[in-house]
Design a protein that fits this description.
With 359 residues, this protein is of the alpha+beta class. The protein is 22% helix and 25% strand.
Length: 359
């Protein structure tokens, strides 16, 4: 009798995992809801290298024209204005990880399939790595990880140490994170900081562009849960206990991804809580400072190499030690980077604040 068999390593089985693993990983991330191909996305997908060779994507930013023009019959020739165009680039490289069983005897002792658990484990690993890279990049966290495998395959630029004053803000009139820590409880995160950040975002050049949702402008701010706690428990007049969640108006904001899982909305700024918001880079007390990140459109970008993308990775299975041990590996060629033009951040403002319950 002839039997149809799909053994371990069959091409059809591999394709299924290759097609679905990274897609499943992205579902488990915090950043999927902010990812898109349009220029109004917080995390913009750059896919020009998914179909052609290369390891670097260069992006351009055209500044607004500022000249006065020529009125009446004045001569325009010779009074033209040159375009100011700045560039940024994102580097992509291969990142892989794998698991391997000890052998068939070991697999016999457990009630699950190593292959299936490997798929889920690698999906979790990728979700963690994508989120870690995103928050390390946008917060300018260049001290937690000294390895680009944790930061989107490229180095991180800290706006504070780079003296990029348009893209960080120190509360309580301080000039350093150590100074913020010294102010302790008076330098916690408060709703009034969002007012200050919106003003800063809208009055600098180039302006942090907001997201356009149903004809209205919104920004996003990421806070650590400790900053959320400080904000919620602040009893000052006009703070969270007075505002609460009233800003989440009716159905006006429902159905849009950036509001999914939001803690609230204040002054057209969507507040998200995330444990991966990092500590400050120079804090006298470990964990005393957390870096909130105020974000507009095109705050960061993510790219994949040929044959890859947000729903496809590479999946390889192998048998070792006379086919007793199963190994599975998953990887992709990718990169994630905060947008920077003319040596300045483009879509983010970092705000270090003291956290009263930090250990």
């Amino acid at each position: 009798m002839a039997l149809t068999d799909f053994p371990l390593g069959h091409a059809l089985a591999v394709k299924h995992y290759q097609r679905d693993l990274l897609k499943e990983a992205l579902k488990r991330t915090s950043v999927l809801q902010f990812m898109g191909r349009g220029d109004d996305s917080l995390l913009q997908i750059q896919d020009s290298l998914t179909k052609e060779a290369g390891d670097n994507i260069t992006m351009g930013l055209r500044m607004q024209l500022s000249g006065g023009g020529v009125a009446g019959d004045g001569t325009l020739e010779g009074n033209e204005e040159a375009l100011s165009i700045y560039t940024d680039s994102i580097y992509i490289d291969q990142l892989r990880h794998a698991v391997r069983s000890k052998g068939k005897a070991s697999e016999q002792r457990v009630p699950f399939k190593v292959r299936e658990e490997a798929r889920d484990g690698l999906a979790d690993w990728w979700a963690n790595r994508i989120d870690t890279s995103f928050f390390s990049q946008i917060a300018g966290d260049n001290h937690t990880y000294g390895d680009t495998k944790y930061t989107g395959m490229q180095a991180v630029t800290d706006p504070i140490t780079a003296s990029d004053t348009d893209h960080y803000y120190m509360p309580e009139g301080q000039t350093t994170e150590a100074g913020v820590a010294s102010k302790s409880a008076s330098a916690i995160f408060k709703l009034s900081l969002i007012d200050r950040l919106r003003t800063k975002a809208e009055t600098q050049s180039p302006q942090l562009r907001p997201f356009k949702l149903r004809g209205e402008d919104y920004y996003v701010i990421f806070l650590h849960p400790l900053q959320i706690e400080d904000m919620r428990t602040n009893t000052d007049t006009g703070q969270w206990q007075d505002i609460q969640l009233a800003a989440m108006k009716g159905g006006q904001i429902t159905g849009n991804a950036i509001f999914t899982g939001a803690t609230g909305v204040y002054n057209k700024t969507v507040i998200h809580s995330n444990t991966r918001v990092p500590a400050g880079n120079t804090t006298p007390t470990a964990g005393a400072i957390k870096r909130a990140i105020f974000c507009g459109a095109q705050s960061a970008c993510v790219a994949w190499g040929m044959g890859g993308g947000p729903s496809k990775d590479t999946w390889v299975e192998g048998l070792f030690d006379y086919e007793s041990q199963l190994g599975v590996a998953a990887g992709t060629i990718w990169g994630l980077k905060k947008a920077r033009f003319n040596s300045k951040d483009f879509g983010t403002i970092v705000v270090p604040t003291y956290t009263t319950n930090a250990s």
